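#struct-help
A.M.: can someone run this one for me? Single chain, 836 residues.
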Amino acid sequence: MLSAGFLILFAQQGRADAGNNLQYTKNYFVTGDAITAGVGLRGGGAGHQGVATGTINVSGVPCTGGSPAVIVPCSTPGAVQVDIVAAFLYWETEETAAKPAAGKGSFDGHSIVGFVRGNPNNPGCTVGTSGRVYRADVLPFLPTDPTKSFRLVNGSHTVGLPDSVNGTFTNGASLVVVYRIVVPGRPGLAPLRSVVIYDGAFTMSPGSPGLDQKIGGFYQASIIPAARMTHIVANGQAGFTESLGVNGAALGGPSPFNGAQGALWDNPTFNIFLAPFDKSFETTVSATSPNVCLTWSAIVASTYVQDTDGDGLLDIWETKGLHLNPGTATTPATFGTCADEEGDNGPCVNLPAMGADPFKQDIFVEIDWMHGVAWSNGTSSGGDHLHIPKLDALNAIGATFSIHNINVHFDVGNNYQASNSPYIIPAAYAQGGEVIEESTLLCTNPLNKKGCDVYSEPYSVQVWKKGLRAVKEGFDQLGIASHFKFNRKDAFHYVLFSHALATFDPNTGLPLTAGPNNKDPKSVSGVADRPGGDVMITLGLWRADDPVGCNPTVDCADQTGSSLVQAGTLMHELGHNLGLAHAGTYLAPNCEPNYPSVMNYLYQTRGLTDAAGTPHVDFSSGLLFPVNENSLSETASLGPLTYRVRFYGPAIVGGHATKHCDGTPLLPTDVFSVLLQSAGPANPGGPLQNPDWNNNGLVDASDSPVDVNFNGTIGDGVAPGKGFLDSNDWGSLNLQQVGARPNVDGLSVDMWSSEFAGDLGFAGDLGFAGDLGFAGDLGFAGDLGFAGDLGFAGDLGFAGDLGFAGDLGFAGDLGFAGDLGADEAFTTETSSPPAS
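D.P.: on it. Structure tokens below:
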């Protein structure tokens, strides 16, 4: 304990204006909450080579389990811990050094670097010291479960920080964890909540004014807010008394900061009262006994927010717009609506002018695209091409969602304004439609000092997710400007129509290659967060013969995809953003014939064909009956068939598929198979016919087992003994995850590029400058879901979503034959794989 003799009696100096002692740093909108745990460290480095070691015990992050899944105690057998969105370690020091000297430490055995938050010359509570606050992003260092499916945070975590060395003392450290509850098929399991973090360094010394902090950034508390607040504070002692309040109401008793986490360290959490629809609150602390000196590191607040229609967009945003100015080191952040911008006349996201409705779900999508010039790599070549999404594709998606009472709004800049399409955002409010030249992303770019180790191509090849982020948020080293505004982070999905995707073997880490010389990237149509808010469409290796004089917005398809291919691929990837996998609410298997959805590789790029032979893009409503490959029947009903059934059957004549439907190699035990589609109605206006599973031209009451999803296994299903099950996609869409989109390299959500130079927690290695995410960047620490970018519970998220198993090859690989009888052999206009 520090006695009064060791405290400086500071006059008021260098403090911020009342209400802004700390600075806004993060606000999240998650179907979850935040928890904080900490440990006092002061003096622990004495006799231990100047390193104080402590244990932070975390509890309170919930688990899910059961069927249907619900929130259960984590001790429940089979319980799965929920997804971790962000994890920050804060520590506060008192240092005699003129410059920060305590930023390096360790977390669970990993070296970390924290960067100073707030004023590095903030006065400490010990004579002649500065009270400095550091923060490190430690999400990448949280352990994973044995299957490496999700990160674990409940339990003990060991921190080591400098103390009792060279005039440096570390008072304590606290771990702030933000989590989201996401379960496939249960979009309403947890309501939307805002988590707001203010941090910096502020010392309330004896005789000086106390803490006075305005907390905003949550915009609109719900009718029942159930709000909470945590203060991370150093130098609290049992003999001191303080008055803590929120909006003038006292809480926490006479000594809320008393070293509860260890000598001189506190991170208490309080339930606080907010009125319905409050947009901010004020918290104050004043001393009620002599000699009180406290230093704040951060305040974390959370509250349920008002989202009546469950689309992740607050009602106030949908009726009055969204204003967010994150502030600077010298100016506070401001929040509000388009009509109430808290006096700074800053930028506004005018959602109501774009068509938002608080009583009807809305999805906002900003789209940018690339342009490539004619190219040749010695073995193949391509012409000038523009990766612009076609209006027909956007309209097809918008119309399908509209049928299900969901409004989709595409921001494509000034494009398609004359079409009067109800799905295109007016130009006055648009920021998308920006064209990025592929040449800026090539290995030959003179600004790219590193060059490329693989995929040295004359067209752009980008890694997920670094390559996307460099375009989305800007990358100074390559002269790339930002293409997505920070104030849209919680409201808009971001889609980049690019050329090609770099993929890597999940076991060896080596690049996956194709082409005549086996050096080119594999053809993959897209990739997306699941769930989240980012998408990359990569149809550049999809080749077609364009008509002379074609229009890239209408009928050019070479390297860009046809309208149908674009529509199916974009809707597929948005489906991933909304929580769907390749079997809907089930992780696997892919290519189930009785799952009529663009999420299914069988139906993604070729559409779902109706009785008249017209292709559509659609999700499934989950109405078809189960299918078991070991007990197939051509007379039993499959349920209400809106679309013809697509499946694999034995190849009778002609060619056969040379790869499985999911792109994996054939097995010696495979029967040669061909992709088929069930016939239309036997009589005009009649029902669609059942599939001829065994492709013998007869209607059999029972068939021998057939691998109808052609993955090399007969009798598999969504779970042992379950067979193939349809999925109610439309009833399972989770629109509330856009604000929790996963980050690059497994970093905490909303760690933007502008912070890379200051707060990675990676022992000083930024892992980005020179490591561009283009072509030569393997990006394993998260880009492919390995020890970094984990998706959500039970899903490393990208073994399949990235589509390494999705390359079905060319022409004859798919086994499209001629007329094979009652079922139609399917033909395709492309020669490339479905997306992931």
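A.M.: thanks! The two ends are 58 Å apart (CA to CA).
D.P.: also worth noting: The CA atoms of residues 210 and 527 lie 50 Å apart.
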